[in-house]
Design a protein that fits this description.
Keywords: Lipoprotein. It comes from Aliivibrio fischeri (strain MJ11) (Vibrio fischeri). This is Lipoprotein, putative. The chain is an alpha+beta fold. The protein has two domains: 150 residues, Immunoglobulin-like (Sandwich), CATH 2.60.40; 66 residues, no CATH class. Helix content is 28%, strand content 31%. A hairpin with a 5-residue loop joins strand 12 and strand 13. The radius of gyration is 19 Å and the shape is globular.
Length: 265
């Protein structure tokens, strides 16, 4: 059974030291995990430079890259950036990210939180995919991304320097020297892949990231709550938290698909 790759990796927020944009990035890699068909390189989280000439100002941004590289003919999961973004509380949340003229919806990996003292702040936790070719170009020029609200009411712009991405590419080169050779893909093989809904896709992902005990805990809870959510699944585990989050978001049909998948595991 798969071990946790990321801490979510996407728990950038795992306590590893945070890099600054003027770091030399000699120690930028947090963890490398080898799966059966790919290598996952998790960089440490970084505080990017905020471009204050664009829109509003953020209170905090911690970004983290996880890059996945194939070692067999089977395609690996998408590489992605995970972000923890805090700002003064308002009536909106950020819903998409733009870089290199490409706009994509952000994917929450944990529910947004709020805190109040003298002022109230909101924090969003999300990811967005980044193509491995984009990592290569970002290692030359850096990466600037803009987070936006749905109606463009607010924008925030951040830049991650090139050295951060180059450190990941350097680690990739080192790791692939010791990876098994790529298996030749069968000729003329046609695969028809079904497209899972986001709750199904994320439930499968987080189940594979969970420990055996966490998987058993979630499975028992999911079957007990197959028609409607009558009890909350409580755990300090990020994997279990995200499993319950996506299962609760799933439709009745999605839940049936998740339960069928669990039975076949």
């Amino acid at each position: 059974m798969y071990k946790r790759i990321l801490g979510l990796s996407v728990v950038l927020l795992s306590g590893c030291s945070t890099l600054s944009s003027d770091d030399d990035f000699k120690d930028a890699i947090n963890e490398v995990t080898r799966k059966s068909n790919y290598i996952s390189i998790e960089a440490k989280d970084i505080t990017p430079v905020e471009n204050r000439s664009v829109g509003a100002n953020a209170l905090r941004n911690r970004s983290q890259l996880t890059a996945n590289y194939a070692i067999t003919a089977e395609a690996p999961p998408e590489s992605y950036l995970a972000v923890e973004l805090s700002y003064f509380k308002s009536s909106y949340e950020y819903s998409s990210v733009v870089f290199n003229d490409i706009e994509t919806e952000i994917i929450p990996y944990s529910p947004s939180t709020e805190s109040c003292s003298e002022h109230c702040t909101s924090t969003q936790y999300f990811t967005f995919p980044i193509d491995n070719e984009e990592i290569v170009s970002s290692a030359k020029t850096g990466l600037t991304y803009v987070v936006k609200t749905q109606n463009d009411l607010s924008k925030l712009s951040f830049t991650i320097p090139a050295g951060y991405f180059q450190a990941v590419l350097n680690e990739k080169t080192l790791q692939l020297e010791y990876a098994p050779s790529v298996i030749q893909q069968p000729v003329a093989e046609v695969k028809v892949e079904s497209k899972d809904s986001k709750p199904v896709e994320m439930s499968k992902y987080w189940f594979d990231e969970a420990t055996a005990a966490e998987q058993e805990q979630f499975t028992e809870w999911a079957f007990a709550n197959r028609k409607s959510i009558s009890t909350q699944l409580k755990s300090d585990s990020k994997s279990v938290e995200m499993l319950s989050y996506w299962y609760e978001k799933a439709s009745t049909e999605d839940r049936a698909q998740i339960l069928t998948w669990l039975l076949n595991k």
